[in-house]
């Protein structure tokens, strides 16, 4: 049993946690064993358990250098592990790509920072100072006597990439929800480009997007951007067909766009409240195929070379596509990248200090390209979720396959590095959904009686290093969505690396349930009233979300009454918060007055990033998503009532007031 306990620890299987009730919960050996079994480990095989313990613990001391070594840019200290009997030898460190002289040092002169005894032999960890090195990944060769080793040296910055220390303001939007000028039923990159230009005119600094990940074109109603086909690829439905170069002078497209069916579709979608993904997918992919045919037949030599260059640059990611026609799918990725890049370029040229902020979902679907191509990195039957809370006493199972924390390190974390790099391409910021996942995740799995679960820990130091390195290489700020129960060490590490936290006003309360004062928000944070998982403010204030849950039979009448009473208390607390900010309103005040008073009050906060939901400017009452629902409510489909141009025109003075507060 002692060997199994050691393996639990070495494999990152959690031992305990504190429940939302304050209860201290210790995971049973049965539960922890189930987690190991999901990693393909036979916990009844003592020989296998012993072998894994040696592999995960002793073997790292038997290597001269690990596969990858993390050093800090400011003070590079390189760790070498040797048999104590080699202490009198010299060590030669050579930089394989960098034009730097070799380092030749006597091991006895180096500081010892740790030791380990295995089979009666003592091994030492020695620290060797290195010269200042550029941020990034480099290969280093180490020679001691007849022993050689190569490591990938990760040079990390002190802080993640920063744009400015000034306060900044921006919008958050669900791209698909924008009113589509082309009439094809879903917000696209041209609509985003228009929004960028309007936002820049109003001196906003960024636009925070929903995840733009690839979904399932064969199953268009699978609309959740947080359960994607692949997080390293873009959703082609966001391509604006009329902005594609292959749309110009394309007779086949011109004929198709005059088809009676598509004309009727355009008319129908002008007033539609929800997206019909099946119809959108049908019409847009029909146009995509005509665009691709036009490119193949009439594309210039220059453009075909540009496409070939794109495919070469993104070859590893494109190769993961599970499609019948890889070249056509790659063409769509090319068009999506071109249009996203144009939005970011225009944003920066228009004076926006950050531009677009992308969003990275916490996981991928278990039948998608990302999972199928990297299946060896994932567990067999463990899924990402959340522990029990007041809204889900049995916990939540999000149905996303859990990554094996040991396998994740394969090929020097190549999978995670490529994933972060792909999501930082052509944007100025990246929000990491459920950022505590780089430290620990709640795994769900079924035992013979009921759903079970526990926390499993990940190689935090390495994943954090990837975020900070890639942020500098891509000049991209990083925001960690840290809502919920976040381990203190995660919050401290994120703050130390100047990664922005993500606060929601609804949840920022003291021990008595009162909303925290404006001054309490951290400067290194992104503050917003609401996000995609909670109702927009107009719906929240009027209790529309509660009525909606009742209408969809998600709660019964007694629960509705109870939650309405709790909401009345919340509204009173909000009014007290506003009173402390010098704004006198009452329950009968127009909701637009309450919203503007709240927003202007929060604009005074120290938070360097302050985000306004376009949904709230549009005075939406319907949520885009109700957590815990799938087919019950049309999640990820609700569109805005007005065009972004109309929304900006109506709120011109309000936005000017916010800007005045944030810049003074």
UniProtKB/TrEMBL annotation:
The answer, when asked if Cell cycle is one of the entry's keywords, is: no
Q: Which Pfam families match?
A: Glyco_hydro_77
Query: Which UniProt key words apply to this protein?
Result: Carbohydrate metabolism, Glycosyltransferase, Transferase
Under InterPro entries, the record lists: GH (IPR017853), Glyco_hydro_77 (IPR003385)
Q: Which reaction does it catalyse?
A: Transfers a segment of a (1->4)-alpha-D-glucan to a new position in an acceptor, which may be glucose or a (1->4)-alpha-D-glucan
Would the keyword Secreted turn up in this protein's UniProt record? no
| Gene3D superfamilies assigned | Glycosidases (3.20.20.80)
Q: Which family does it belong to?
A: Belongs to the disproportionating enzyme family.
What is the official name of this protein in its record? 4-alpha-glucanotransferase
Name its species.
Answer: Pseudoalteromonas neustonica
Q: Which gene encodes it?
A: malQ
